[in-house]
């Protein structure tokens, strides 16, 4: 997490200030519940609401001595709230506070990411509808295959990020549990209803069975899901990088006035935003493995997960937030060149229609193997630059024996490939 | 995927025979649909049902020449089915067959894994109920914390694998789509209803928008999910390895008659099964990253994902199947030593009750900080082996000023920690 | 490791037959050494040399009972060699055999990989010299930058795989140690000279300090190195995939007679080999993480590394061997299109010479910022397709105020970029 | 990289201030070389030395407009140095500055890490010599195996980090190259001697063949090496965590006055430092994969590697620096309990001597299989807690038929296992 790739709202979730505020809220809510249950005398929660405060510098100072962050925090709060706060944290263990706080942070982070995805979806949908019938060549293996439309490319992204959204919703739910269950999760000194109360107030669910900590398979699933979403970011970014290649030139990242592409070569306009997204995706993906390694804690917990989460908690969410927002902006402002798409499509001299010919030949009674051979031999000549594919076909007696020249010509109409675009759009965007 | 870590049912999903059978089924179903829609003349599907066959050696032979597996397969089928099969595969692209087949294989694999998890859950539940109140020490940081029960450890595993099951169900659904959409996904030469028909017959959903391939974010999510489940396997395996340590000795993998623990040291009984599971988890987890790297294919597809999937498709599912089955068996036959658990719990001379004392002191009006100090100074003496914790407390005037010795003694009853076990079991296993 | 991506020589290293042969050799050499040192009576090694044999099926059978592979092997050998073999393995532990065997396998595998790299280097050098001065456009961000040569691209690969070779030599050395040090590495029942003898005979070094096993940081380094080399394979493969794109068309994988590019589109010639290499690189890279996770074994060893190595030992080496050999063949037979390179270079209307102009302007006294602005404004017009860059410059009074038109024209000579090619080749290939 | 896990010296390498200082130094050195070669008029370098300065806020401001960091930097420097600086950066490309700077940063980081390792080695050596003959039980699979010494455990760490040092030295060398080769690495507007001059002054080597960038296989190797070293940190940390377990209690992290182990349980002293190291190792290891994914840049470069390096450059080096320093301190201050080691060793009732008995039996003429059976049957009874292993052996007629009771007793002397400790120390620490 570095300022260059951070947005303030997401970054602020991970500030010391936010964390301690959440801790204080958890302690206060727990005290409220205990008071209601009569476990502790009334008054603590009111004191915490009225005078509960902390001092970050003071916490740091205490922590340097006691080497324990929650104890340092509680001491600082006690210093503000006075002796009446002494029932705060009763029967709880540090992880009750830490893990419930992390759940709050991760669900808040998930909410921002969900909003990011919504913005991206809106951009993708707008561009999809705009270019629903903008013909472009479909490429497999980087090689021209058959016509498709630019709108379909955007629709593909839309469908992919709709899945991303569903996955993130599940991951948010997975990670959204609170535990106020004590030293080894037995509620030895706690009433389980405290946990239920705190959870409900924070929009979380109680963890059905915890140890000292909330099980880390939940967090592993969360970060793995971010890794998959980041990989979808990379896919769309890679598509745009390809389209912007000099030789392709079908689309281009918006290049603002005043922007400089290269210190040495003033002519350059580079797809630096999507290249950047490709790198960011590698980072987010990379955090999935440490998160999975965090699952196998020893017995009722060891603290090895903590350092990992202190870094990847912010790093993964902040980076993915930045990446999604950047991608939405790239899509939104993408400069699209339909003329260039048409030009590229046609440059192959109609080779992209080879399957049409193949099918027409088989339908005219030629065996599949022979049809393939006939088409390939003419395609290869065209591919070698010896002339036009259509002309070769019309001059090939074996071909014309099955298909009349006019029939062959009709097979070279790109509109043929448009006929089910509407069906697909219906599936993706609804009727 | 090596025989040592394979079970036949899962491995057979990935055999050449299975794959080609699924391909043939897909081609036959597609022909049926096309015939119903009138796209191809009636007859092909019947020919395929009656005479459709393939010869693996022949396919290999053809593939060596044409360097294309689906073409080799179609040729072999044609050789068996004769010229009437020439409408087979019409308008389809190889990936229509390959990707729909992969969806069939992965959903079948998921079904086996789901059954594996069910068996594991059954074993965990049985052992949880059996040991619901078997007292054992809970450990955080590998250090004695407070009492818990062995049943709770099993219940924790049960809850974790219940989550694993839910995740796998979603991952199965995510990866369970069919695409019969042609060269670049436009249905240029196909009716979308063919896809719908084939999908339904195979228990899949139609892919809303595909390119030449089904988008790989689906597969990435699938393999990432397997990685998270494998990490849960590792967690439980690590727990057992710890319990079997010589100094702990609280549980032990079943050691069969005739088994030899060590070639050099005949006295040894090693937790080799759970150590093995730890390694297998590393493998399955490792496959998540290549699967995520597979997402960013170029344009309407490149084939870089294929080699990855040829290996990790079998490797990840076969290894996880083996691991889950092994874990279920380990749990089922685990030899548990409640006496040893009791002995270990007591070895600390009651230090595990320090929080009870801490709470009683604060409830008796001592400030949190002072109570902590009082308990810690006596605990540390006991920890250093200078004597019994309880005795020290009863001899500490500052402590007895707040708590009468009989009161202190009562705090040392492990039963105190059992009072919410039933609540937790209710949450995990239902009322 | 699947036949499709395996070559027999590398695969055979990992066969049961090979492994047991190496085990027998280790046991025999150890017996020789012990006899020479008088630790065991003379005769065992001769018996092992003369009658030492094993039966794989029999080993499997015994292992099913005793659940210990080395004990099963020793029993099978004893059955062949008779009672005189009873001093075999004396004082040794299974890992002495297993780990020393793995060192033999990995160093043999490294030797094959080194030979693969040599073949690749030879192909790269040949193509580099062939195309030393074949001008092509250099691209940064996928955008035309300045001219370079195709030979330099090959030289870059040559230098990179020279580094790969050096890294592999070190990794081979790192992993090339033998341990015959007994149950926990103390040589309690062994003379360290046995280890030294066995190591020397096998071309290994003695492990300075082992536990029950050879430390796994060695293996982690080995597999991490393979991952880096695989990433270099991916880089070169990606270069070729880009060059073969329809719009670029500067080079092409050799496409054999009879080969079929697509089942549906007979015109296609796809870079399937290099796409495949991209996928294989992901696999090999992915094995680095489990190998690193293998390092932290418990105390004097746990066996969690074993299952990992049983899979990634073969998988990583066999896959990388296949990939390197495939890459060498791709480079060797790569079809290069210098005319197309020239055409692409020129398509930008000389924009690639913008830096030349920029420099000439600054040398003529224009400030860096102004020069940049002058060049960029003309470049952008050309980039937008409004006309020729050279013409715009010659018509820009601010430019011609500093540079005469003839001077500008001279700046557009690609030969300017060739002048240090020979220097670079000297650095890479020697004088 | 977060303050909690950062040390100032390493962190400062990655500050904006440091980076721009290195950039300025590179520009100045390049100008010096160009002046000496007569490529640019004399004066620029003197101006840069005398008046060369930059303003970080101003750079940020300019970058927001031009979206290019090096151009922003050059502009800021120009604003300070005036028009005489206009020959600065002539013929160079941004990456010449960026990549050479990164090489300086990574080699400086490597130097700090090397010093860290030296400090760790010193601590390990001191503790190894101190505990050379401190007997402790060796454990395989977490199960008592045979005696070893605590000094050998430290010697193992010493040997492992000696390897880590060698690997890091190579990685430093690998990454220590400068490139001042222009837009696509052809030295089109530069004399290669400029690169040589700058490299030498910065303690780097010239990159033999670069594109726009220094090839990323070098960086991948660097970060992969850090990942392997981090895994060695994890191994040693895991060892200590095990030794500190309540039931084992053989060693303990130093626990300072005032330190608090648990907010709830005042008796606890947890191995939090080594648990923390375990987590940090996961992080550093995780950065290896993105670094490897960075290798396959497109053509003469794309900028996807940049965002990755901006994060993992600091994160990996700062985290590993922190981890190595923490580990050195843990080892240095580790509290070792030899009495507890002895107690644990003896708790098995001599089972750890089973191999001694096995060997004595075979040497007395019993076949290997029979000897194994005899030892195992008595060991298992002892293991089940039915009595003492030694007593069982002496009461087993089949055993005493081969070995007299006194002979058996003599086999139970732990000193037997010490006889080669000195040999091993000689190998590790030299004579």
TrEMBL record, chains A, B, C, D:
Pfam families: ADSL_C (PF10397), Lyase_1 (PF00206). PROSITE patterns: FUMARATE_LYASES. SMART domains: ADSL_C. Gene3D superfamilies: Fumarase/aspartase (C-terminal domain), Fumarase/aspartase (Central domain), Fumarase/aspartase (N-terminal domain). Its EC number is 4.3.2.2. One of its GO terms (cellular component) is cytosol. One of its GO terms (biological process) is 'de novo' IMP biosynthetic process. It catalyses: N(6)-(1,2-dicarboxyethyl)-AMP = fumarate + AMP; (2S)-2-[5-amino-1-(5-phospho-beta-D-ribosyl)imidazole-4-carboxamido]succinate = 5-amino-1-(5-phospho-beta-D-ribosyl)imidazole-4-carboxamide + fumarate. Keywords: Lyase, Purine biosynthesis. Residues 349-429 form the Adenylosuccinate lyase C-terminal domain. Pathway: Purine metabolism; IMP biosynthesis via de novo pathway; 5-amino-1-(5-phospho-D-ribosyl)imidazole-4-carboxamide from 5-amino-1-(5-phospho-D-ribosyl)imidazole-4-carboxylate: step 2/2; Purine metabolism; AMP biosynthesis via de novo pathway; AMP from IMP: step 2/2. Belongs to the lyase 1 family. Adenylosuccinate lyase subfamily. This is Adenylosuccinate lyase.
